[in-house]
């Protein structure tokens, strides 16, 4: 199942914002901003989020992250 957002992915992994932040090389505040849609992750950070999720068994795509953040529906 594809996660619908960064927060959903993180919760599926059972990780805190701090753990995800450490894995993708940003601050916990950045992860909070991404999850609350105050900021969008840069393309390189979004790719790291995708990589970390996929490596840990949560299938997520670059389009899923940006589609969610921009209010678009995920395309199968």
- Uncertain runs with pLDDT below 50, 5 residues or more? 72-76
Total E-strand runs: 0
How much strand content do the residues show?
Answer: under 5%
Q: Mean pLDDT across all residues, rounded?
A: 83
Which descriptor suits the 3D outline? globular
Based on helices, strands and strand pairing, what is the structural class? mainly alpha
The succession of helices and strands, N to C, reads HHHHH
Count every helix, treating DSSP H or I runs of 4 or more residues as helices: 5
Compute the gyration radius: what is it?
11 Å
Proportion of helical residues: 55-70%
Distance between the termini: 11 Å
The largest pleated sheet is described as: none
List the helices and strands and how they pair.
Blueprint: H1 6-13, H2 17-24, H3 28-35, H4 43-55, H5 62-69
């Amino acid at each position: 199942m594809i996660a619908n957002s960064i927060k959903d992915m993180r919760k599926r992994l059972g990780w805190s914002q701090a753990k995800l932040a450490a894995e993708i090389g940003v601050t916990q505040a950045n992860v909070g901003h991404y999850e609350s849609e105050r900021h969008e992750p840069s393309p390189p950070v979004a790719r790291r989020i995708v990589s970390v999720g996929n490596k840990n068994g949560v299938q997520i795509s670059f389009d899923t992250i940006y589609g969610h953040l921009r209010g678009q529906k995920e395309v199968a």
